[in-house]
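Handoff note, outgoing to incoming analyst
You'll be picking up this chain. Sequence as last confirmed:
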Amino acid sequence: MQFMLVASPDYLKTYGTPQIPDDLQRHQAVHFFSSKTGKVRNFILEHEGAEQEIPTIRKLAINNGDAIVAAALAGIGICQLPSFMVQGYLTEGKLEKVLGDYGAGSLPINALYPQNRHLSSKVRAFIEWVAELFAKCRLLNIS
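Most recent structure output, in case you need it:
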């Protein structure tokens, strides 16, 4: 699952558009907060094979992706979100991609099953089917 940095046109008009990752240090940001771990996920950018964690001015930390999208649309700050959650808003011009020359990280999508049991042919077929669907899903593979 690919991520991207986005912000509303109003936010970028008010605060400017970052040109390099270090510019993010002067921008307000909305981060994902994991209620399970109690940690905030910082922005991760990838460039030429190297990952870099970027410090920002943390305006807000939220544990719900839809609420982060709403914050981005409201112009609260720059957000790092899965591409499938924001693609429609990008197409409509309600959000703009930030630092598009940099990858914004990804997270794996996992299928879990009990390790101490034999993997039935039905479960294996289901996992292979889901993997094939995800591989073909354009929205999951946009970076």
